[in-house]
Amino acid sequence: MTIHIGASSEDIAETVLLPGDPYRAKWAAHTFLDDVKLVNETRGMLGFTGYWKGNKVTVQGSGMGMPSLSIYVNELIREYSAKTLIRIGSTGAMQESIALRDIILAVTASTISNPSTSIFKDLNFSPVANWELLNKAAKIAEAKKLKTHIGGIYSSDTFYDERPDLTNEMIRHGVLAVEMETAELYTLAARYNCRALSILTASDHLITKEELPSSEREKSFSSMVELALETALGE
What we know:
Blueprint: E1 15-18, H1 22-32, E2 34-40, E3 47-52, E4 55-60, H2 66-78, E5 84-93, E6 103-110, H3 117-120, H4 131-143, E7 148-155, H5 164-172, E8 177-179, H6 182-191, E9 195-205, H7 214-220, H8 222-233
Parallel strand pairs: 1-4, 1-5, 5-9, 6-7, 7-8
Antiparallel strand pairs: 2-3, 3-4, 5-8, 6-9
């Protein structure tokens, strides 16, 4: 048990899926896992552990933004010995070739700052995905004929855009999408020698201004969760 996770050590699996929304964690666990057990509800940040094809897996909400995710990932790795962490989240598309509901596999995550920035001082550390997970996810997505985009994303400290000039430059340089967590996830995974990957679903679009209504998001996110489970635990 930690300050933010009220689970016992045996309640947390080595493989953890990380949606930002705790209610999305509940939906994913009860939709895709067997023998589901609520293992955390501290501060309303729900976590569940169950089994997928006999493999133990935890689905833990991580909250919004890198500071929140950093708390949960630090505790999952350092106190519960999590080894494989896959973020399953929504993202805002930044390229015209990306449509709503498309899957994005984040190779890298650029950021202005994250909770680890002070450690590196004058170094611009480049946080990247685990190659084994990324390669496997890409092959599974291709076999499933999922419309998938692979490349760099941007992890922002803010949800509401205050830098349209920066957004324009990222679009010009091929950044696929924006979200708020991956840069810190990849940095922590590198620090503690764990595997991490962000598998994201385009839920809105910065160029076209389209967005998925909340009623459609869960159904649209099913492919992302299935891809994450097969990548982490499939043969």
